Automatic annotation (TrEMBL), chain A:
The gene is yhdW. Pfam families: SBP_bac_3. Transmembrane segments: none annotated. The keyword Repressor does not apply. This is Amino-acid ABC transporter-binding protein YhdW. Gene3D superfamilies: Periplasmic binding protein-like II (3.40.190.10). Residues 1-23 form the signal peptide. Coiled coil: none annotated. Belongs to the bacterial solute-binding protein 3 family. Keywords: Signal, Transport. PROSITE patterns: SBP_BACTERIAL_3.
TrEMBL record, chain B:
Its main location: membrane. Belongs to the binding-protein-dependent transport system permease family. HisMQ subfamily. It comes from Methylobacterium isbiliense. It is a multi-pass membrane protein. SUPFAM superfamilies: MetI-like (SSF161098). This is ABC transmembrane type-1 domain-containing protein. The chain crosses the membrane at residues 27-45, 57-77, 89-115, 136-157, 188-208, 220-244, 271-290, 345-363, 369-394. It comes from the Bacteria.
């Protein structure tokens, strides 16, 4: 089982190989290997999913591609490791993956006791419920006595307990190891309701036998800031992950897109010039070259483009920008200045 | 040879320097080896702890007393997200594993013996059916079978609101099997007491009947009288109590709720699928063990029993099976251990056993992989060693006593 292997690797790695593994920085390790290992969702439409040809797509996948673009100027130098919610942290802790970009909620206990850091939030989400239309349920408050399918090892499992407790409702929880098993159990009628992050609900709904037979209830019962995660203790690598996201935000704000990035290189706007590395030496501070952000935009695109392509209007999910809009448009996505 | 026994010892053995004494040397090497291994293990543990500290990963076993914060539906002991700890979640998982293993072992043994005997039956049809069962079941991976039963159980049953109503207030739907739940009144203790008395009386009767048979050769209907005592006494007690108006057992019948049935006793489909899968799978192996055991008893034994005038039933029960047990018990122990360990496949079908609850949810919420995996491995090791111990004691009882 993956967990056992990872835990043993962790124990052995922690005990025997400690000196060598910890001395080398994550970035140097990636450069030496020649590729980035990225912990990815094994199958969540819009966030991380391989297609029939084995090509990975999704918002979280594109984030890894942005990192590979910044480091190697080549988005194919990535090895994606599909991880279930249950196995993901052990895989990151043990060094099996360099970065975990897998719709993972940033919470205090994860930040402080798992040995992880969450450099930047790349999707603000919240937990919701999906039910079969024929139940006639229109609000999560009517779920008293329902049985609910959920995925193990997620914050969802905890929020669910909190929500039903706070509203003095009874429920029966059936937890599965993978998202796939969870949704199948719901779809086959084992549970009345299926719960996960709202973005996931829309993605999973597409996989139902009859998507239109299912409705997503209006209540959002929690805050789920989804963020890429890295191991604690390597600030350089955390900085690269953080500023790659911020560069994509700043590019969107400055109107730099995948299509116009080459023209923009000649722009007079000092903000744009700093982002694209024609002015200043910001990339070197990260241990990369100064045109790191130019490569990210050129090969992957700015945040808005990545959002619309994977989960927004350009995708079957059609999720609104909402809180994920730029701060200047009433959302929460705010890129600190590159200067 | 100085220490050879053939040399007649005059007074004392010749003195050898401890450096060349093979016994002293042997001990020294063993002690050195143990020390070296111990040092290695200690260094590994110490190093791991240090590195976990450096990586800011929490370590130690203190997490077991932290509040769990999640719910488990199928639990033998009370468990609530708000007040229960990770330690209690561990107990919930452990008990769920133990009950599946215990029920699975009993059912698999019964079914396995039946099929094993059936395979040797002179009835061609029966023997072939048993053979097909064994060959089909034991050659398909257990995980596949579990998924099959879970999916088969789920899709074959009606939805929660269209429950199949069976006689006696029993309901069946996709959420499981619902039966009326007995609720014991304060004076219900009389019934287990009556059961105990009945059991004691039945044993006493059997002992007396044996003595009488040894003395006079006359047989007594031990089985019938025993059954009457064991079942009749508690039933009579219940009847008397009910007649005087103090019914000790009332029944809670499942009724329809908003989503599903409420009340009653619920057997979850995950539990049913797991027990079914484990039982059917292990029974196929036990059947082969039993067949091998019976065939290992020489034909002469059966013929001798027949020559003495024993009927086929008593021949099997009194002559063949006791001798076959010597061959059966050791491999049977392995099958019990296999079943217990295989119960960890529960994780695939959402049954909250030890692996699912503890190594799944608890590991993930605490992130303490090393501790959680170590505890889980220790638990399976302990369960297996205890099972093996019990079976070895039994084996010693049935083993051939050589004089």
């Amino acid at each position: 089982m993956k967990t056992i292997v990872a835990a043993l690797t962790l124990a052995l790695g922690a005990s025997v190989l400690s000196g060598a593994a910890q001395a080398q920085s994550t970035l140097a390790g990636i450069k030496q290997k020649g590729f980035l290992t990225c912990g990815s969702n094994p199958g969540l439409a819009g966030f991380g999913v391989p297609d029939a040809q084995g090509r990975w797509t999704g918002l979280d996948v594109d984030f890894c591609k942005a990192l590979a673009a910044a480091i190697f100027n080549d988005t194919s130098k990535i090895r994606f490791i599909p991880l279930s919610a249950k196995d993901r942290f052990t895989a990151l802790q043990s060094g099996e993956v360099d970065v975990l970009s897998r719709n993972t909620t940033w919470s205090m206990s994860r930040d402080t006791s798992l040995g992880l850091d969450f450099p930047a939030v790349n999707f603000y989400d919240g937990q919701g419920f999906m039910v079969k239309k024929k139940l006639g349920v229109t609000s999560a408050k009517q779920l008293d006595g329902a049985s609910v399918c959920t995925q193990q090892g997620t914050t969802t499992e905890l929020n669910l307990a909190d929500y039903f407790r706070a509203n003095k409702m009874k429920y029966e929880v059936v937890a599965f190891a993978t998202a796939d098993e969870t949704f199948k159990a719901y779809d086959s009628g084992r549970c009345d309701a299926f719960t996960t992050d709202a973005s996931g609900l829309y993605a999973e709904r597409l996989r139902a036998a009859n998507p239109d037979d299912n409705i997503v209830l209006p209540e959002i019962i929690s805050k789920e800031p989804l963020a890429p995660a890295v191991r604690h203790g390597d600030s350089q690598w955390a900085d690269i992950v953080r500023w790659t996201h911020f560069a994509m935000l700043n590019a969107e704000e400055a109107g730099v897109t995948q299509a116009n990035v080459d023209q923009m290189k000649g722009s007079d706007n000092p903000d744009v010039r700093r982002i694209l590395g024609t002015e200043g030496k910001f990339g070197e501070g990260l241990g990369l070259t100064n045109d790191w952000a130019y490569r990210v935009i050129k090969l992957v695109g700015n945040y808005g483009e990545v959002f619309e392509r994977n989960v927004g209007q350009g995708s079957p999910l059609k999720i609104q920008r909402g809180v994920n809009a730029l701060w200047s448009k009433g959302g929460l996505q705010y890129g600190p200045p590159i200067r | 040879m100085s220490n050879s026994p053939s040399v007649a010892p005059p007074s004392r053995p010749p003195r050898v320097s401890p450096l060349y004494d093979p016994r002293v040397r042997g001990w020294a090497y063993q002690i050195l080896l143990v020390l070296a291994v111990g040092l290695l293990v200690w260094a590994a543990i110490d190093n791991a702890a240090e590195n976990l500290r450096n990586a800011r990963i929490a370590s130690g076993f203190g997490f077991l007393s932290n509040t769990a914060g999640f719910d488990v539906s199928q639990s033998l002991v009370p468990f609530a997200a708000a007040s229960s700890t990770y330690g209690q979640a561990f107990v919930v998982g452990l008990l769920n594993t133990l009950i599946v293993a215990a029920i699975g072992i009993v059912l698999a043994t019964l079914l396995g013996f039946l099929i094993g005997v059936a395979r040797l039956s002179p009835n061609w049809m029966l023997a072939k059916l048993a053979g097909v069962y064994v060959e089909v079941i034991r050659n398909i991976p257990l995980l596949l079978q579990l998924l099959f039963w879970y999916v088969a159980v789920l899709s074959a049953l009606p939805g929660a609101r269209e429950s199949l109503s069976l006689p006696g207030s029993v309901f069946l739907n996709q959420r499981g099997l619902y039966v009326p739940k007995p609720i014991l009144a304060a004076d219900a203790w009389a019934i287990p007491l009556a059961l105990g008395l009945g059991l004691a009386a039945a044993i006493a009767y059997r002992v007396r009947a044996r003595h009488r048979q040894a003395r006079t050769g006359r047989q007594a209907p031990v089985g019938l009288v025993g059954l009457a005592l064991v079942l009749g006494l508690p039933l009579a007690t219940w009847g008397v109590l009910a007649l005087v108006g103090a019914d000790p057992v009332t029944v809670e019948v499942p009724v329809k709720g908003t989503f599903n049935l409420r009340g009653g006793l619920q057997l979850y489909p995950e539990f049913v699928a797991l027990v079914l899968g484990l039982t059917l799978y292990t029974a196929a192996f036990i059947a082969e063990v039993v067949r091998a055991g019976i065939q290992a008893v020489s034909r002469g034994q059966t013929e001798a029993a027949r020559a003495l005038g024993l009927q086929p039933g008593p021949t099997l029960r009194l002559v063949v099976i006791p001798q076959a047990m010597r061959v059966i018990v050791p491999p049977l122990t392995s099958q019990y251990l296999n079943l217990t360990k295989n119960s960890s496949l529960a994780v695939a079908i959402g049954y909250p056993d030890l692996v699912q609850v503890f190594m799944g949810t608890v590991l993930n919420q605490t992130g303490q992989a090393v501790e959680v995996v170590a505890i889980t491995m220790a638990v399976y090791l302990s369960i297996s060693l205890v099972t093996a111990l019990v079976m070895n004691v039994y084996n010693r009882r049935v083993a051939l006593v050589e004089r």
